[in-house]
User: Fold these one by one.
Assistant:
Number 1:
Amino acid sequence: MFTIKSQAEIDKMKKSGEILYETLQLIKKNTVPGVTTKELDRIAEEYIVKKNAIPSFKGYDTGIPGVGPFPASICASTNEQVVHGIPSLNRLKDGDIISIDVGVYLNGYHADAARTFAVGKISNDAQLLIDVTRQSFFEGLNQMVIGNHIRDIASAIQNYAESRGFSVVRDFVGHGIGTDIHEPPEIPNYVTKRRGVRLENGMTIAVEPMINAGAYSVKVLENNWTVVTSDGSLSAHYENTIAITENGPLLLTKF
């Protein structure tokens, strides 16, 4: 069952979100041809720690047998990689796109957000994918109001993305968030048979469309973490942490 946060708890999550937003802006500035994703990970971790916070993802353990703890502070997923890319010494190239997912833990509360960035000059098709993925989140945001259900968010995201010719990943979804990085409820970006829980004042959720240029099917690489599109098509990711309030949705990771 999901938890309801007090205003004081939401304020703590907003502070985590501010650090996360600043981290993403720093990564964006350094996302240039020739940089390694390992270097981006170092930049992110140093900044988060400097702010007296903790990277939520480093050492994260799913508890699944055979899947070790996540070894980095950011997920860095390039081109056909959808999510959970492990930073490496591979250098980014002009024309790549990269999805950066970051979590920040401060004063007992997490924030979680992701962006897809262009590396140098990218194709028009790649830019359209990034733009549609971002806008699909904001279509969903319009439905994040008290009294609506999870399916209202999912429907808005799916309808927008598919109307533009893209597909919505089914295997990974958004989630509740707070004292744990992943809390109930699950928040699909596509319509399921269930309406899902009704949104209530004080809920905090992480909504994260993962949109593919080709088919929605994905597979996991041998490292047991990195998810790629099954057909090798590009994928983009956009995520924010949101508080449901009486005055509408409050973005905790975008300023």
Number 2:
Amino acid sequence: MLISIEEGRRRVLEAVRPLAAERVALADARGRVLAEDVTSAIDVPPFDSSAMDGYALVAGPARQLALAGESRAGHPHEPELEQGTAVRISTGAAVPRGATAVIPVERTIETDGRVEVEETAEGANIRRAGEDMRAGDVVLARGTLLGPAELGVAASVGRAELECARRPRVSLLVTGDELVEPGHPLGPGQIYSSNGFALAGQITAAGAELVRRASVPDSAEATHAAIEQALFRADVLIASGGVSIGPHDHVKGALRELGVEERFWGVSLRPGKPTWFGTRADVLAFGLPGNPVSAMVTFQLFVRPALAALQGADPAAARARATLDEAVERNPKREQAVRVRLTHADDGLHALTTGEQGSHMLTSMLGADGLALVAAGDGEVAAGERVEVLLL
């Protein structure tokens, strides 16, 4: 019996056991998922600093002041500022004790060791200590995907290492006698193997480690041997092709023989109906269709959430509502994942299909920003109607 997309995702996530954490050098942590809350041990900035190049002084009316020194980044002016004096100061430099404002250099005239200043308000152009982050604040939460901004924040509070979830190890098997690696000539009835490269790209983009990619011929013995080896090394096994009911489809049988418990086979989905999922202990096994688009779509719908959950990240992909700019035919029996390009307008997102939507048309993934989820039914979803979109 076919199950819904949401039921398939629920069964996948129900089987996930998050991976252990490990220490990762900050320089190597981009794309990793935090396994701890990061708390600041210091105020950021750690001292009152200047927001401008100019002069630190006591706020007050226009007047002439004697120059008493300089404060520049990394080299603060140590003495307390005295009444009637000012200190040259650079952006980011520490404000001297006793100074209550900074006046920009363009509002001053300096001559012979003195500086004429305009009227200056209390606190002007001073960045206060702790204005960005306070000591004791949680600045990055467990489960955060670490990008450039997050690495910058971690560095700003002095963290050289972070506790991150271990990357899931993924073995990828692509089945089919007809498949040839790019760079080799094609024989009769052969095609170039695209799934191995498209899925490998999706795996690494999801933060996982691809430990094996192999092509497997359409024989029961070869399929059994390849899956047995892949299960030994991986947290996640992905087999593309060989999951239907044809005489040369051996993946499901091999998985069962090797003790992988079936959690579902068959989703009410176009493209991607013959998707298979099972588990052996904590290892997750996915049998994805062999058609190129079906493989990429079902990866997004089922494998990507699992890889996120294994790392302690939020498995719920971002979703939005979009207005269709063209009609889409419904499938009478199955929900569709239609590849769409998205544009922004005054009334929100608009979606336009990427063209021909056949499961063999890999070009339909080019430029796709999302998967529009179209419910089964008769007729069409008319242009101008709003649909749910899974953002890629």
Number 3:
Amino acid sequence: MPANTTDQEQGATAISTEFSRYDQVDKPPYHLAESADDADAFDEDFQLSTCDISQYLLGNAADKAAFADELGAAMREIGFAVLEGHNVDPALINRAEDTIEEVFTSVDLQDKLRYRAERHGAVSEGYFPIKGTSEIHPDLVEGWVLGRRAFDLDNDVRCNPADFWASPHLESIFRELVEAELPLFQPIMQSVLQSLGCDPHLYDEKLTNPNLGLRLNYYPPINDEDQASGAGRLLGHEDIDLFTLLPAPAVDGLQALHPNGKWVRIQAPAGSIVMNTGDYMQRITNDVMPSTTHRVSPPRDPEHIGKLRVSIPLAAYLRPDEMLEVLPGLVEPKYDPIKVITFHTRTTAKFYGDDYAVEG
């Protein structure tokens, strides 16, 4: 969908409450762009919790309980944590990151536009041009969202990579990374559920051959005009999923909004994975675990402004016809049960236009 220039110009100075009619969970107010915030709006002392998931993957019952408590506490506090011990080979991450530039630069714009993003189920999959991620965000990023079918993960449905990739020979590189991260979905959800006092296996079936979305983000170097425009590399937003796994990017800029109203700079060591919870999780946990607002801003080091930045977040979704319901055993539910496709598209209509919403 073509970006609306007027809306995008407003988006660079907008406050989130201007779009709150689209939200399906409670969210705090914030300015979409960093340039709108005061200089003292950062908590420079806060550090994300680092959780060793090998405790859950390899440990005994006590180890699993300790990890669940630690991860659960981090998710309650800010909805972000750094995962170590995840068993994803850093070489896979490096290889995928090194290949992203080729995905976006080896073919011209007209070829990429043949894959322009469209809704598939609840999720918009395909190519997003720079400044075209959203009708309200003039984001300085190109993106490519790829679901299960783009990686031919289902044996009963054979897919042609050329239907999803402008450079189909690159598909195997990213499929290998996805297949390495997928085994983390169930243990993470089991840990979250255990920390809430729920049956840890409540979502096992939902996360067997799960719905997913890998987003390739290509942030070109920032020029003077873009820097002066007030646009961010990726303006403030929340993820609409259960949780997101992001191999720690090499170039800084990721920031999260702490409940204290200040922004936190996310810094994670190479080879680690940054995890954050999304709107699905906030809904089913009755607001116990927030879908934390985050953004990508220009790097602090002026020498890095002219550097390319890439990232590869993997979203854990649910299938479109499944229901989002407040987990059993929590306090009086604030939210009624709702079908995933309705919940997801009502929310993302904020980015893609009101006619994007699907009812039932």
